[in-house]
Amino acid sequence: MTKTQEIVQGVLAGNPRSVARAITYIENNTADAPKIIADIYPHTGKAHIIGITGAGGAGKSTLIEKIIREYRRRRKTVGIIAVDPTSPFTGGAFLGDRIRMQELTTEEGVFIRSMASRNYLGGIAKATKDAVKVLDASGKDIVLVETVGAGQSEVEIIKVAHTIVVVHAPGLGDEIQAIKAGITEIADVFVVNKGDRESADKTITDIQVILQMDNKEKAWKPQVLKTVALTGEGVPELVDKLEEHRRFLEGDEKHRMASVRTRAETELADAIKEKTTNKIVEELKKEGKFEELLQKILRKEIDPSSAADKLLQEKLGK
Amino acid sequence: MLDEKSLKTLEQEQRRWEQTTLQNWLKLSPERKKEFQNHSGIPIKRLYTPEDAEALDYMRDMGFPGEYPFLRGVHATMYRGRLWTMRLFAGFGTAADTNQRFKYLLNEGESGLSTAFDYPTIMGYDSDHQMARGEVGICGVAISSLRDMEVLFDGIPLDKVTTSMTINGPAPMLLAMYVAVGDKQGVSRDKLGGTTQNDNLKEFFAQKLCIFPPKPSVKLTTDIIEYCARHLPKWNPVSISGYHIREAGANAVQELAFTLYDGISYVESTLQRGLKVDDFAHRLSFFFASHNDFFEEIAKFRAARRLWARIMKERFHAKNPRSMWMRMHIQTSGCTLTAQQPLNNIIRTTTQALAAVLGGTQSLHTNSFDEALCLPSEEAVTVALRTQQILANESGVVNTADPLGGSYYIEALTNEMERKAMDYIQKVDEMGGAIVAIEKGFFQKEIADSAYKYQKETDEKKRTIVGVNDYTTKEEKCPIELSRIDPKVEQQQVDNLQKLKRERNNKKTKETLEKLHYTAQKDENLMPTIIEAIKSYATIGEITEVLRQVYGEYKELIVI
Amino acid sequence: MQNMRKIRVLIAKPGLDSHDRGAKVVARALRDAGMEVIYTGLRQTPEQIAETALQEDVDVIGLSILSGAHKTLFPRIMELLRQKDLTDIMVFAGGIIPKEDASQLKKLGIKEIFGPGTPTETIIRYVFDNVPERT
Q1: For A136-159, b where at least 16 C-beta lie within 10 A, e where not — what string?
Q2: Which residues form the domain of A19?
Q3: Are residues A273 and A172 part of one domain?
Q4: What residue ranges do the domains of chain B occupy?
Q5: Choosing among A68, A87, A98, A100, which should be mutated to test the B contact, i.e. which has the most B CBs within 10 A?
Q6: Taking CB atoms and an 8 Å cutoff, what residues of chain C touch B120?
Q7: Are residue A100 and residue A88 in the same domain, yes or no?
Q8: Count of structural domains, chain A
Q9: Are B340 and B297 in contact (CB under 8 A)?
Q10: Residue of A nearest to B554 (CA)
């Protein structure tokens, strides 16, 4: 058996070491990575993938720990991917989300992996969606993805998750920002954490008002729940709601197929875009044409956009 | 404090000096660095003159020792009347081992006891708990029950000594044990003297020994303050600490500001109980580090006294002068001591101790030279004690109060530190107080940034550490004998605990624990119930577990 | 696309020791040197450390301890790493660890001990020079 086959077999058997290794190969985009993804792909599609996003200070990590415990109580296995930002200056990252869940590290049925964004924008890492596939294929019932936590611009999660949870804390003032950024449109469940604060109920009302203003006809009406992550209050109800959404997705064949199709379509288009671009640029560089036009740009004889048009015309011959 | 005309003359003359004598000298020999700064980043001038102390009003800003604003000392005669307490932090192995070290130190001339507990005790685990494996007695004494405490103070009359206990989360339990031992010895409770550190706020951002979340932790601290105000008049219920804040990496201004803020928080929490400030404030005590920059540290201690006095008077409207005085214990800085060339540490500890004395401390611990290597050997701790005794008896610095008072440099620096500390205090006030600041990670970020800066400066050799990044020698092996803990200690403790649990009245113990569980859910002072439980030989682990069930456990917010 | 390997380091504080200044300074320095650093906070059990190393598939583990409990905790950690087939991870340690214990610890598989006063640059260089090759 080759090393790749060993890892794939291990992933499908739920072996944590293989899962960990597979994720690393994918993150590092090694030569083995495409084969691993190809081999596990047919075994994906069983897990319920939940994205958890929200600004820092909302208590996402603490809430996630309680959510995991609640799922474990219901005898579900859980994989978690926690994303933290890579420093644009140093290229390094401090991955500290795990600490809130650390007690669950040795719990059977739980697998926690920290990922650095590696400068990918949108709240997750480029490798996150494939890492999710690995956890899915390894047999996890639930896969939680905790986004970086910048809040507003974290819309990449829709490419990955079935259910999106947005966590607010009262008084953070992020509700208005979130609406501006459009994150409200993608959320399936809103959670107001730190629900024991005085302003919690007002925050819930504020969000409900905003949701009502959205008069698009929606099959799933997002609701606002209250939790106190520190004590676990409201978490069973939250998990009930997540399960409800999962059943909704499974039950509504049309809706489910639409969202599965959209995700697959996006993924395919993105993959084509990336591979095409890389291939063309690589070839142009090899042929020296890239450098030729670059010199012209530096001499201000041509602007970059026109240069690109020129190169593509030659390459694609139209 | 010069008149207008003299100041003008001084200014003119100083300019002349700068343009002539100084310039000539700089041409011959430039200064060693572009900038001179102290640890807090405050620039240090090449010369301080009366101009720097110009705004000082002697009566308003300096006053007399023993009077507001207490800048020059809390006692009128300072060390002419009474030397500081020589109180060496000690503890290791079993209670019997530490009892022996206590007696040794008292015999050699220390004037007060100070107890170091092992990690399991500090975190509320008994010596036989799974989390205690490998940790029993190795950096402090193992105390799991009243029986251990009785052994710890065997032959030590509690009406003749004062004892400081460095304990925070389980402070109520250790204080209860001390009271119980005193009761057994027949010492009346109003004679018991000592201190429980009991400063839970700083645990969240400095010492990190937090068991429960912030709100219940402050509640427990306040329980002890309230209980002592009513029942233990000679006991210092808290030692509001800056030492750990400094050791965690804060600079001197941050140490000063964050410590005083914790003090403000405890005054507020105790006032909320209905006590008047003059009922309890006189027994609040403080604990600072004495770090390397000699004059900065002296200025810090003085600034602390004056700033606290002002806060007590203006913010809390204290009437009794004793409510405004800040009594402090100082420990020389552990993190400045090196593993390389350990004998050098004797010199570091000496200058740091001298700063503490010139800063007017009431109590002092000097570190042993093997600090960076192991627990203090008998030889090393003796040198540490002798350091204090030599300063007290041979150096003459004790013969007058606040000998550096009036130094242009010291007064300017004292003012600057007080000002900068006030800025921080205002900032935290605006944030909403200490607990909010902790939840936001404010203190933690300030400290982490200072710690990182210090390391970078050392790495880049902007700061010299003799024997470490300069003046190094190749040491093949450790140049001194290291003290070690007997590995049998853990088994001994485990056996003792099993024996205790067989011999005590388990029914009674269980009842007291149930009562505690019930009381902890109400808003009552837990001290009486804890004393009951301790006296029925409930262990620290058992009591902490009850409290964990009621209050929950704290999960750290990490800021690097 | 080029290989995007980043060095992943687990900085761990085993046992009850609560002195985390050094661990945090080292974590930050390694991050600033371009590594991905996982720090799991205080009071980690050997089981938590080994399992975290496995799940995070780290290249390096840095153990920080100042309480003297390394004599009990380090052997347990190294044994667990062996049981989980994680012996290819490079393990170094720091804190208060007497020189005379160093040879014993190295026999357990701990590659290097960085005592008090070690410049962060030394640790960074060591990790870059000694991080295991990935096949």
Answers
A1: bbbbbbbbbbbbbbbbbebbbbbb
A2: 1-43
A3: no
A4: 58-459
A5: A100
A6: 16
A7: yes
A8: 3
A9: no
A10: A230
Phi and psi, residue A287, nearest 5°: -75, -5
Instruction: State the ipTM, two decimals.
Output: 0.95
Residues in chain A: 318
Tell me if the bond preceding C14 is cis, omega within 30° of 0: no
Residues A211 and A108 in one domain: yes
Which CATH number is C8-127 given?
3.40.50.280
Examine residue A259 and state whether it is found in any structural domain, yes or no.
no
Q: Which two tokens stand for residue C2?
A: 């080029």
Q: Which residue of A65, A69, A99, A196 to mutate against B (max B Cβ within 10 Å)?
A: A99
Within 13 A of B267's CA, how many CA atoms are on the CB side? 24
Q: Do B134 and C71 touch (CB under 8 A)?
A: yes
- How far is Cα B267 from Cα B258, in angstroms, rounded to an integer? 14
Q: Assess if residue A239 is contained within a domain.
A: yes
Residue A225 lies in a domain: yes
In terms of domains, do A194 and A151 share one?
Answer: yes
Question: Using CA of residue B448, residue B452, residue B455, residue B457, what is the dihedral sign?
Answer: negative
Residue from the list C42, C98, C119 with its beta carbon closest to the beta carbon of B478: C98
* Whether C118 contacts chain A with CB within 8 A: no
CB-CB neighbours of A10 under 10 Å: 18
Are A272 and A205 found together in one domain?
no
Q: How far apart are CA B325 and CA B434, in angstroms?
A: 22
Q: Does B338 contact C at CB distance below 8 Å?
A: yes
Tell me the residue type at A150: A
Residue of B431, A115, B191, B405 lying closest to C56 (CA atoms): A115
Closest CA to B528 of B229, B279, B227, B271: B227
Q: Which residue of B has its CA nearest to A96?
A: B558
Instruction: For chain B, 560 residues long, give each residue's pLDDT as a single digit of tens.
Output: 678 899 999 999 999 999 999 999 999 999 999 999 999 999 999 999 999 988 889 999 999 999 999 999 999 999 999 999 999 999 999 999 999 999 999 999 999 999 999 999 999 999 999 999 999 999 899 999 999 999 999 999 999 999 999 999 999 999 999 999 999 999 999 999 999 999 999 999 999 999 999 999 999 999 999 999 999 999 999 999 999 999 999 999 999 999 999 999 999 999 999 999 999 999 999 999 999 999 999 999 999 999 999 999 999 999 999 999 999 999 999 999 999 999 999 999 999 999 999 999 999 999 999 999 888 999 999 999 999 999 999 999 999 999 999 999 999 999 999 999 999 999 999 999 999 999 899 999 999 999 999 999 999 999 999 999 999 998 767 777 787 888 899 999 999 999 999 999 999 999 999 999 999 999 899 999 999 999 999 999 999 999 999 999 998 888 88
Q: Does A41 touch chain B (CB under 8 A)?
A: no
Name the residue in chain B with its Cα closest to that of A172: B440
Question: For chain C, which residues make up each domain, given as ranges?
Answer: 8-127
C120: nearest Cα among B461, B18, B230, B217: B461
Neighbours of B (≥3 Cβ pairs closer than 8 A)?
A, C
- Contact status of B557 with chain C (Cβ, < 8 Å): no
Task: Give the gap in angstroms from C-alpha A156 to the nearest C-alpha of chain B.
Answer: 27
Multiple choice CATH, B58-459, 3.40.50.720, 3.20.20.240, 3.30.830.10, 3.30.465.10: 3.20.20.240
Strand-pair partners of B331: B289, B365
Residue A256 inside a domain? The answer is no
**Residues ≥6 apart with Cβ < 8 Å to B111:** B83, B85, B86, B87
Domain match, A30 and A126 both: no
Quote the tokens at residue A33: 């990575």
Q: Which residues of B touch A57 (CB under 8 A)?
A: 440
